[in-house]
Task: inverse folding
């Protein structure tokens, strides 16, 4: 099979490998579509984080949709022919969190395509307990986007939710943009988005942001205050990992507001904890991955009902052989969600 291999050097190598065989509890999948995520860009660049974490050679990539073609011994929950996507966080099943229904925060969490073989390949093997069965008519290129979309759904829905609330979304990368769709579908009364990229702001407006702010030109805090009669936003949903976005977001929150943080800062962040959190009685939530499988049920209802349309987020749809073009575009900020098709030559 053809596979995109990560070696201990920048870039990636398209190569021929033997298709893997499903072990106990695993399914062999024909990968029909896979999407590129920020994590894959870290591996492609082979930056310090990737060098410290990944043990090459490794087939990388994790966002996927495909079809079950064979089952290993004792594999249950899916059948040959099923269309599936994957929860890409592998949990141990034995720690306190796994045993109390919170496998998304497993103490021994491993990620497909980072700590275990990935899916940028014609065939891949995954534990059936990580598979999510899709409707047969869900397009492959949409089905693969459910995993990052789940990050957005979890971030928007965790805590008291956004129905009838004013929401500030900082960072309009793919996940922040998806959060605009979720917030709109969940009935947010006002959606304000921020990003320094004019192209991403334009897309944010198209997807339903009432106000789209460039933090280099607009005062985000003042704009939010003006738009909320001086009260501030009810919820901050942070998708940039940028320190100043986080701090402005906290300052733009109303007293008693909610801050759900998904964006990952590159280094330590200093907060004015007294003024920005404690005296305002703000609730801060760290958001990681998706709730397994609660979030996937919410994702399915939003996507299949048509309340959310993910198609405008797809920036590229190409055979996997054109991976270099896609990764270069993504590295230059010219992509939103690229989708690769491993079966097309
Ligand atoms: P991305 O890098 O494409 O998006 C980040 C966006 O933030 C970019 O569009 C960038 O222009 C914007 N930005 C930068 N500075 C800003 C500022 N001052 N104000 C507003 N926006 C600013 O990433 P993505 O794939 O959309 O992911 C979003 C974040 O979530 C990343 O930090 C990623 O590492 C993180 N992430 C976390 C999890 C998790 O489980 N916690 C999962 C996936 C991704
Ligand atoms: Zn565990």
Result:
């Amino acid at each position: 099979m053809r596979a995109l291999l990560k070696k201990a050097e920048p870039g990636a190598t398209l190569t021929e490998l033997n298709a893997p065989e499903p072990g106990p509890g695993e399914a062999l999948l024909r990968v029909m579509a896979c999407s590129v995520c920020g994590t894959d860009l870290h591996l492609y660049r082979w930056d310090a984080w990737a060098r410290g974490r990944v043990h090459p050679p490794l087939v990388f990539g994790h966002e996927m949709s495909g079809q079950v073609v064979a089952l290993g011994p004792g594999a249950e929950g899916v059948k040959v022919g099923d269309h599936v996507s994957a929860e890409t966080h592998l949990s141990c099943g034995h720690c306190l969190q796994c045993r109390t229904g919170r496998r998304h925060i497993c103490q021994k969490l491993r990620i497909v395509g980072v700590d275990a073989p990935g899916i940028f390949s014609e065939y891949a093997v995954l534990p059936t307990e990580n598979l999510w069965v899709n409707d047969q008519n869900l397009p492959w290129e949409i089905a693969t986007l459910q995993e990052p979309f789940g990050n957005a759904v979890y971030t928007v829905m965790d805590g008291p939710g956004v129905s009838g609330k004013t929401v500030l979304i900082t960072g309009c990368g793919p996940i922040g943009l998806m959060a605009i769709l979720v917030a709109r579908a969940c009935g947010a009364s006002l959606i304000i988005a921020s990003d320094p990229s004019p192209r991403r702001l334009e897309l944010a407006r198209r997807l339903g942001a009432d106000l789209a702010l460039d933090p280099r030109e607009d005062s985000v805090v003042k704009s939010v205050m003006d738009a909320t009669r001086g009260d501030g936003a009810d919820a901050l949903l942070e998708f940039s990992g940028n320190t100043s976005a986080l701090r402005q977001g906290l300052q733009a929150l109303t007293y008693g507001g909610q801050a759900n943080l998904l964006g990952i800062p590159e280094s330590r962040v200093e907060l004015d904890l007294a003024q920005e959190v404690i005296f305002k009685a703000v609730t801060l939530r760290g958001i990681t991955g998706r709730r397994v499988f609660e979030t996937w049920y919410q994702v399915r209802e939003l996507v299949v009902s048509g309340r959310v349309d993910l198609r405008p987020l797809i920036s590229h749809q190409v055979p996997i052989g054109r991976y270099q073009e896609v990764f270069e575009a993504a590295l230059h900020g010219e992509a939103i969600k690229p989708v690769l098709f491993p079966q097309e030559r």
